[in-house]
Specification:
By secondary structure, this protein is mainly alpha-helical. It is 76% helix and 0% strand.
Length: 193
Amino acid sequence: YHQLLSNPDNFQAFTFLTHTAKELQIALLQTVKSKKEFIDKCLEVYQVQFESSLQKIKPQSETEIKAITKRKGGVSTIFCHQMINDQMTNPIRNILYQSGELGQLCDDIYDMYDDIHLGIHTWPIVVREWSQIESYIYQKSKELNTLVDDLPYNNKSKNEFKVLSHLLNAMSMYALQKLKTRFTARKPIQIEE
């Protein structure tokens, strides 16, 4: 897949899916301003998706699983922004990365049932105490508020972004509260640190 992402013109596609991916990547490379930066981001997203696939194949430590959650959400969000607008300042990049982390965490919380049955080890599944996730969400929310407040935009725009961000976080907290109520004596999946 490295060649498909970085040099699709020379990629040998044998299936409909790989042929479609090849054509899409060729078209995308013709529209982006910085091919190198776009390819680097594609490869970074691919690497994160590969790391994420390891959550099913081999158990990892809670620390590694948490890092995968953060990177998967952060890298994917930045990649999506780059597809829409390739101009990005470092403060915006930081805000998008952290928003992506929280979005991925929310997704993992809501996917717990399916992930458990599929044997995928995500942070909400292996965490020792759900209060760790709650604390993380609160901490990241505070950090995001500060970062957004420092942006050179009008207060109305900044407040709208913060409200949307907090709605996502509220969904996560609500789901965690429901899980805590239902499974007060749950034990996390045991993994080696």
